[in-house]
Amino acid sequence: MVQTRIDTPEDIARCMKIKWDLGLAGGLVIGNPFPPKNAMDESLIEGAITEAFKEATEKEKRRKRGDSIFAGANQSAYSWRKPEE
To answer: What are the distances in angstroms from CA 61 to CA 11, 12, 15, 67, 74?
Structure first.
């Protein structure tokens, strides 16, 4: 893994082209931080990450046991209802 900082869109494009020209496998992750005034509360983000990790870990445990990946999930999120006319 290579971690670097690239500051301009042109340099990002140049980096991508070089990677593709060399035929390197893998991808690029490009992040652009929010200005501090627009950032979310850190505790909300940390809570969401922690909850997602717990859910993913539990789903992996169920998958290894052969359970349905939807077992215990909020079923309303996976059901479709015909709109009332």
So the answer is: 43, 39, 39, 9, 17
| Token pair recorded at residue 11 | 């340099």
Q: Are 76 and 68 in contact (CB under 8 A)?
A: no
Separation between Cα atoms, residue 16 and residue 5, nearest integer Å: 13
Q: Are 69 and 63 in contact (CB under 8 A)?
A: yes
Residue with tokens 């052969």: 66
- Show the tokens assigned to 41: 């509360």
Q: Is the pLDDT of residue 36 over 80?
A: yes
What digits encode the pLDDT tens for the residues 59-78? 888 777 776 655 555 555 54
- E strand or H helix at 20, and its extent? helix 9-22
Exposure of 79 by Cβ count < 10 A (0-12 exposed, 13-18 middle, 19+ buried)? exposed
